[in-house]
Each structure stands twice: as C-alpha cells, then as structure tokens.
Amino acid sequence: MNFRALAARFALVVTCALMTATPAAAQFWQCAPYARTISGINIHGNANTWWSQAAGRYARGHAPKVGAVLSFASNGRMRLGHVAMVSGIVSDREVLLTHANWSRRGGIERNVRAVDVSAAGDWSLVKVWFASNGGLGTTSYVANGFIYSDTAPKSDETPDTLPSLTLASNGASNGTNGTIGVLSLVDRVAF
C-alpha cells in the first residue's frame, strides 16, 4: 500500500470518528417535533398537516393563547408549513413565539415577535421576527390558526432534555422575564 492510499484511509477514519462524536445537545431541531415537545400537543407528521390533524382532537381557533400552537400554511418557501408555540401575548395583534428551524436551520428561538397583519385581525396573515433582518421579516405568511391544548406548559421554559440555543427578538421587553433583544447562548449549549 502506498503512502497516499494510507493517508486517504487515515483521513476517512478520522472524519468518521469526528462525525460520530457530535454532542447530543447539538441536535438539529425541526419545527414539528419541537412544537410537540414544548406544547404538549401530540400531533405527528409535517407541520402542514397539523391543522387538519387537530380537527376533532384539539380545539382550534383564531385567538392567541399561551401554550397554543400557531399553524402556518404551506407556501413556496415553506413547502412543509411551520408550527410555533405561543410563549407570550403582547396584545391582540402581537404575540411571542418559541419555535425551531426558522431563522437558522435547526436552531431554537424563544420569545420572538410575531404580528398579525391580516386586514380582519384574525391571525390569517402573520409576520415573524427573523434573525438576519434583526426585526420582522419582509414576508407575510398565511396562517391556519391556533391549536389549543390544556396540557401546554405554564411558562416558556423548555424541558431540561432540550438544547438551549436562544436567538432573541427586537430589544423589547416582554414584561415577564426581562428583555428579549440580545443574541445569546444560554444554559446547556455544547460544541
């Protein structure tokens, strides 16, 4: 065996070892499993199926409630839709969302701003805070509505088994746990 072949095999072994050594806290989160974990709403499958799956199983509506899951419809940029848990209510047209896989692939964002921009004020069209803009995104998203659960957590804290990478919102205070405008790494992020 020549030196090049030996070096290539060694590099392959080292690469495989490094890929399997990723810490559990560095998990990549999709929105649906994360929303299910933090909201207590036991629906499986892609986010674009949650609204129809909730029919007859969970109450649904168009008014925000802490612990409810906001269901976004599919569109060209979000073929599989999106789901996010309401972690706070600012006003009848503004809430705070906790969700995964929005601004950064696989990342978790807590208490980010979402605003109802629908003409009827029925949460059918929503703008959501986006990290790269540092504010509300430029796109308005069609929303199906809210899925309610009585088993939702009483606070915006996630269970200890979840990684805690937080990308915060726009510098406003939510009145319950301090400011939400600083980009921060908190709790148990392992690299």
What does this structure look like?
With about 190 residues, this protein is of the alpha+beta class. The chain has three helices and ten strands. The protein has helices at about 5-20, 30-40, 50-55; strands spanning about 60, 70, 80-90, 95-100, 110-115, 125-130, 135, 140-145, 165, 185. The chain has a six-stranded antiparallel barrel with strand order 2-3-4-5-6-8. A two-stranded antiparallel sheet has the order 9-10.
- Based on Cα principal axes, name the global outline: elongated
Rg for CA atoms: 19 Å
Helix and strand content put the structural class at alpha+beta
Task: Catalogue the unreliable spans.
Answer: 20-24, 152-191
Average pLDDT? 78
Care to count the β-strands? 10
Order of helices and strands: HHHEEEEEEEEEE
Helix content: 10-25%
Key words describing this protein structure:
single chain; 191 residues; alpha+beta; 6-stranded antiparallel β-barrel; two-stranded antiparallel sheet; 17% helix; disordered C terminus
What is the topology?
Layout: H1 3-20, H2 31-39, H3 50-54, E1 60-61, E2 69-72, E3 82-91, E4 94-100, E5 108-116, E6 125-130, E7 135-136, E8 141-147, E9 165-166, E10 184-185
Antiparallel strand pairs: 1-8, 2-3, 2-8, 3-4, 4-5, 5-6, 6-7, 6-8, 9-10
